[in-house]
Amino acid sequence: MKVRVSSQVKRNRLLLIVAFALISSAFSLGVAWNPAGAQSKLTLADVLTGLKSTKVTLTQRNTLLTNAVWKRGVTFALTAEIEKELRATGANNTLIDAIRENGPAVITTVTPRTNVKASALFQNLWVDYGVTEGGQLGMRIHVKFTAYKMKNLDSYLAIYFLDKDGTTLKDNNGKFNSSSGDVAVYKELIPEYDPKDYGDLAVFMPYSELDLSDGNWDLKMDVKLIYKAGGLIQDLTKEAFNYKKGDSVNKKSDSVTAKVNRVWVDYDITDEGRRGMRIHVSFEVNGLKGVDSLIVARVQKTNGDYLLNNRSDFSNDSGQLQTSFTMKPGFDPAVYKDADLFLPYDEIKIAKGVWNLKLDIDISYADGELIQHLDFHDFKFTQP
Known about the structure:
Blueprint: H1 7-29, H2 44-52, H3 58-72, H4 80-89, H5 93-102, H6 112-115, E1 119-133, E2 136-148, E3 155-163, E4 184-189, E5 196-206, E6 215-227, E7 232-245, E8 257-271, E9 274-286, E10 293-301, E11 322-327, E12 334-344, E13 353-365, E14 370-383
Antiparallel strand pairs: 1-2, 2-5, 3-4, 3-6, 6-7, 8-9, 9-12, 10-11, 10-13, 13-14
Helix pairs in contact: 2-3, 3-5
């Protein structure tokens, strides 16, 4: 008698055959279908070998390997490089996730250069020449920029000095220098915000630290942001300037002529959070083309004594209170319609009371040597 086998029984037999094939394949792969702990954890070589097997389809290989990973774990951490290799060999997302969950944690070393994409947007640079600080004559370099992704990052504003051919100046005394022995000045930064705006980050560079002999030098300053541990964050700008040292500065004061057209003062002005007075000078000058020079305003009492100040930003070599306007005329004659000088009230060191004072306005070389007196301007000042 013939027995008719139902379609359901046929399906069950087919499933058993497939299951047996899968189990056999698993044993041939050597990676699955063992009680937990019966075999050691899978190595990367085990997984790659299983993926490359041709005994079952890639989908089945991924299924078998995923089950094995969940049962036995893996000996390796899923780094970006290993994940890339596994996916190239055929690993799917399910297998990758299983390896990530059942393998050692990925240990990363955080360093500024590889993990922090720091950058900056340069906006402006300007220089005050002929400034005295700590008894040294030099220049104050102001840089305006915005720092991004630099919160709490130890870094420097670094300024290197180059000759006209782009070769870095070499340091002679080890005071203002880079690790490679080039002339440089640094300003330490640890931005507390992201982004962080630096509206006026100032750095003082003494002229003597350029380590140059007497002469007329066309130079450049190369301004960068760098990691404190080493390495470039961002090139900001390069600025050309001229430096004259020694007898190369032709100081023929008797050939310089200047004429003041007008002096006026705006009182109770706020500049970068400080209240003070803005002094305006309209004048013409002849004989100073290409020469670094200054318009200087000092403050006198009615008896002729000059007020004193011990801050290098607002004093000359004699300790007299002064504020200045830096210039380098490009023509002979040169016309300045409005050279302005700001004097904060809190720099006027005088006893309480109402004072009749006088501005003594002069023109001088960048090193402070007087060229010519320009004008006086009387004003009244109340010290509360």
